[in-house]
Design goal:
mainly alpha; 4 helices
């Protein structure tokens, strides 16, 4: 399944799960749209299954925690990438040497 189709399927599942729990459809679309990625929506679905949250506030808090964790992961990967680039420059130089 392509990334877009999988995202749409997970978003639909998330909206459906929240509807089943008694929340408005708009809330489900807001949560799914805010999470945006397959990983984040899968995390939220696991949370909804295991934690059985009792309020929209708990779900929103978890959504924000998932988004924060994703942002930290992105920053870590970006830092690792640039650290690797700096290491390569330190090891091999910037390109052509002056003669």
């Amino acid at each position: 399944m392509s990334g877009k189709k999988q995202r749409e399927a997970l978003g639909g599942e998330l909206v459906s799960r929240l509807l089943h729990m008694g929340y408005p459809e708009e809330f489900g679309y807001l949560v799914a749209g805010s999470l945006g990625t397959e990983w984040a929506m899968s995390r939220m679905l696991r949370y909804l299954s295991s934690a059985q949250p009792s309020s929209a506030e708990e779900i929103t808090d978890e959504m924000l925690a998932i988004l924060s964790e994703r942002e930290q992961w992105q920053k870590k990967k970006c830092a690792e990438y640039y650290n690797h680039k700096v290491s390569m420059v330190m090891r091999y130089g910037c390109g052509e040497e002056d003669d």
